[in-house]
Give the backbone structure.
Amino acid sequence: MSEEIIDVLIIGAGPAGLQAAVHAVRKKASVLVLGRPEMSSIHAAHVENYLGVAGVVDGGELLRVGLEQARKFGAEIVAEDVLHIEAQGDLFRVKTEGRGIVARTVIIATGTARKKLKVKGEKELVGRGVSYCVDCDANFFRNAKVAVVGDGSAATDGALTLTGYASEVYLVSRKVDVSGELAAKLSASTVKVMENTWVKEISGDNAVSSLILEDDTSLEVEGVFVELGAKGAMELAVNLGVMLDSESFTHIETDKKQATNIAGIYAAGDIAGQPYQMAKAVGEGCVAGWEAANYARKRKSGGKA
C-alpha cells in the first residue's frame, strides 16, 4: 500500500503559515498546516498598521478569520507540533505528536520564540501592557510612561524609539552593552537608564500599572517592553542542514523566492528575519506558498524543480 504524500507541509499557523496555505492550495496543491495559532506572536497583539485594517483589530480575531479562509480553500490544519523531520531522497519525512507525514516540500513559518523575563505578572499581562515588540506596539503608548527591559542593542534601540511616543521612558538593565554610537545616542536622549538592577515583578490588575525592581523600587508605568532579543526555533532547520544567517544565527537565510539552501525547503515570516511585522510575514507567506506549490507540481510530474 503506497503512503499518502502531501505536496506542501507548512510548519506554523501564524500569518506567514496561513497565507502560504491559502496560496499553495489555490495552486491545486495538497496542503497540511501543523501548528497552534495561539502560539503566534500576533495572537495576543493588536493590529492597526496593516493595509485595509480600519482602527485597531484584535490579532486573535485576524488569525481566526485566516484559519477559516485556509480551511475554506481546502487546506488541512492540525494543532500538533513537529517532533522530528528528515530528508529522504526528494521527500521529507515528518513526525508529529500523533502521526507520520511524508511531504514533497516544507515551509518553515514557526516565527521566533521571544525570550521571557519569567517574573510574576508577565504572562498574565501580555497584551495588557506587556509587549515583546516596540515596532509593533509603540503607537499604543503615546504620552504614557513606559519601561524597556534588556541589556543589548534591541533594548536600547527600542527605548530610543519610544521617546518619540511615550512621555517618559525607562531602560532597565543589568548593564547596558551597546556600541559607542548607540551609547552616545542613549546618553543624549531623555531615556532614564536604571542600570545595575533587574525586574522583580510586573504589577497591575487588568493592565500594567507598575514595574517593581530587585531593590523594590517601583516605577509607575503603563507599558513594559521586554527586549531580550529573539531566539528562533532552529532545531528542525539545523537538522536539515538549512543555512542560518551568518551574524546572529537566529534566522533562516532565504532568497527572493523564500527558498533556503536545501531544495524543497522554504521559510517565511519572523523565522526569516526582521522586521517582525505581519505585513512582511503575509507577503513572504504568499511567495513561499506559491513557490512551494510550483516545486511540488514539478516533482510530481517528474520534471526538474
